[in-house]
Amino acid sequence: MTNFIYDKLRTIHVELTNNCNAGCPLCPRNIFGGIQDPNLIISEISYDNFVEWFDPVVKNIRMWIFCGGWGDPCISKDIIPIIKYIREQNNGAIININTNGGMRQKEFWIELGNLLNYEGGRVTFSIDGLEDTNHLYRQYVNWNKLIENVKAYISTGSNAYWDYLIFKHNEHQLEEAEKFSKQLGFKYFIPKRAMGVEGNKKIGVHNRQGKRTHYIESGLQEDSKNMGEGIEVKGNNDEECIENFIKHLKNKKRDKIEEKIDPAVINFNPNTFEIDKERHTSLNKKTVQCRVLSHPQHGLQEGENSTYISSKGHVVPCCWMGTEMYMGMPTFELTQFKHFLYDHGHHNISLHHNTLKDIYESNYFKKYEDSWSIPDIRKGKLAICAVNCGENNALLDLWKHNKNRVTYKWAQDEKN
Ligand SMILES: C[S@@+](CC[C@H](N)C(=O)[O-])C[C@H]1O[C@@H](n2cnc3c(N)ncnc32)[C@H](O)[C@@H]1O
Ligand code: SF4
Ligand code: SF4
Fold this sequence. Notes:
The chain is built from 16 helices and 10 strands. It has helices at about 45-55, 80-90, 105-115, 135, 145-155, 175-185, 240-250, 265, 275-285, 320-325, 330-345, 355-360, 365-370, 385-390, 395, 410-415; strands at about 10-15, 65, 95-100, 120-125, 160-165, 190-195, 200-205, 210-215, 305-310, 315. The chain has an 8-stranded mixed beta sheet with strand order 6-5-4-3-2-1-9-10. Strands 7-8 form a two-stranded antiparallel ribbon. Strand 2 (about 65), helix 2 and strand 3 form a beta-alpha-beta unit.
């Protein structure tokens, strides 16, 4: 028995592309904001792929999320025909698009706004500050262009949300930004406790030439800090961490999924793979509360489920896994997860080779579910699920800022 039932699939999160115009320092597509991950191969879901893959389910889907983990949906070539197609097939379905908003001309934003002009349509703009601070995280997003695009989109009357990642350099602007969001016509202003600077981490930011230009840190206010546990980053400090990472990418052993699998992934031995003792014990203790089964974060009701499709066409349960499966860090949780996928066969989870129904009707999702009740990560409990959906996780803490009561009440309600 599995709870991932094909007929109960109601939300699909699609990464239309892993391409982007920006260089956010904690986004995996570039190394701390600097050079693009040399192993990244740009991939995109075309209109034809989309129709072929989702035609059998499009009428059942209540919510589409176009966000992704490695790119920006608004830079993808076919976003407009894809949205048109969904609207023609099921005009009440919720469509949410997350974007840095800095690309394209205002005509595009007006066209998008006209397509999303109904209750369930919305664009969430990721704007982390004001004119003098947004670019410190959203590198290469031009403020004037962004605001021109936002105004063009909002002029159509469609719903706009403002997501605001809080850092030390922009926490003093929260109130002013919220006021500005109202002036512009945003429906919601959503402060989020940034990840990657959990606790008091200080991260060096790099430009496209790989030179360090500035640092980012978590906010100073208690309520601005993300205190949850994130995925492990090897290295005790920023320099060591970057050095380790570049060394790892350069040794070319990293798997690119289906092209060359890292021998460390193929030969992963859960009994001997190095993991800090305290982290091991803590991950064993965590109870996994999966957020793509019957969970309000994905607009799901009891018994319903959601899934994620990467720009390469791989199907994994959630966006966190869909992002982390391509990351290069040689940690326990990532290597174990990549081995899990390798063992199942990347080919078997690809929509380029299988239908979504076939993937659902294989034993694939049950393997995830079965892993959650295993008491030890060395015996098969998926460490990545314990990190992302166990107690005290950074993904949940992200939503817990006291001003974020309206849209994400579920985050405040959860016990951990
Ligand atoms: C990789 S982005 C893809 C969508 C789009 N490019 C964007 O940035 O909005 C996915 C989500 O991660 C968020 N994000 C980026 N950096 C983050 C961080 N350090 N902490 C938490 N969320 C972050 C983005 O704001 C966005 O909501
Ligand atoms: S805008 Fe989104 S995809 Fe682009 S670099 Fe920033 S977080 Fe990554
Ligand atoms: S990380 Fe694991 S437990 Fe969490 S949503 Fe994804 S599949 Fe579910």
